[in-house]
Amino acid sequence: MVFDTASLLSDPLAQEQGLEPVAGCPDPTLSVGATSSAVMAHFRGLAVAVKAYPSEIARGAELPHHPNVVRTLAWISVTDATLEVRELCVGGELFEAVAEIGQLTPALALRHLEELCAAVAHCHLNGQVFGRLRAEKLLLGFDGHLRLAVAFGGSDTPPQSGPPLDATAARADVWSCAALFCLMLAGEPPEDAGVIRGVGERGIEAYPAVADVCPEEVHELLRAMLSPNPARRPSAWACATALSAAREVGYSPGRTESADAVASNLTAPSRGCTGSEATASTENLADLDKAKAGERSYPAV
């Protein structure tokens, strides 16, 4: 069965829970899947992403909140379907920004790498791995900070309890983080997995500008993350911790001009929505973040 998610927003059961279509938005579609589309909607004053599933879907275990992981806000049962309501990352995909503005500055790329490692570490600590971390999972929030998307409908791999986490898949995630970092520096959005492999294999030495913003130990960390031997790669938690320490003493990306450019360019209204609507929804989401997450810290794992 193929679900029309947009039409389900008008279901009385959805509207009872505060879910409704976005007024003045002729095309709310965010992405198209095999069984339904993800669409933009309003949920209790917030701009959100919604996708429909069969009523009998086995929901994946939800991760505890983390500021760099896209979060599920609610599950709503409607007639013949279940709707998953998620945080809307108004900045879109990170690599769409790379395609628009070109290569990121080393400082901004390092900030996103730190956030990515912190998010991946959070997933690993909660029993979830990707095995193959795809570029389209890297999104930008209203604040310009990175959000890692876990698959709609649950985790990419079922949570594990008892046995240790799959170390090979977890180390593959670490390699992907470093390879995607290289793509940020190169300004080359990945068109397929081969591009990721090719850029990653060039190694961090191909990007000497990074020496301007980080000490040699960060170079060593990146070399280790890209090691062809999975056993030699550090854990995502170790990477996030090392990058956090390096940021405090060796580089300080903060709110660089490039970061502001990404945030301002990609949080602009799109798909025919009004500017006031986008501003109101991002302000509400900011309030929700403050209430739930408190002050941001790196790594928050």
Automatic annotation (TrEMBL):
Residues 254-301 are annotated as: Disordered. GO terms for molecular function: ATP binding; protein serine/threonine kinase activity. PROSITE patterns: PROTEIN_KINASE_DOM. Residues 1-243 form the Protein kinase domain. GO terms for biological process: intracellular signal transduction. GO terms for cellular component: cytoplasm. InterPro entries: Kinase-like_dom_sf, Prot_kinase_dom. Keywords: ATP-binding, Nucleotide-binding. This is Protein kinase domain-containing protein.
